[in-house]
Amino acid sequence: MSRELMNPGGVFAHDDTPLAARRPLGSGTVVGLFSNQKANADLFLENMQALLAAKYDGISFIWFRKISNVPADFSDEFLNQCHVAVAAFGD
Known about the structure:
Helix content: 10-25%
Number of strands: 3
Oligomer: single chain
């Protein structure tokens, strides 16, 4: 006996969109580190900071932390200084 399965999400289509080109990292680049402060999010970002600092000379970092269940209210400092961002949402 065969059964027909139905996808409860329905039929959908999506366009394949290529990823944006990576911005080169180098002297003067400011990397924003964004944490929602859930378990291990800060630990992940601390490790990313160490890896990036070891690989690229002259980059600096700025942190933004938010409470996990509250929408982010990014500071102008964070938004205006970051060239690239790394986000961590731990659980």
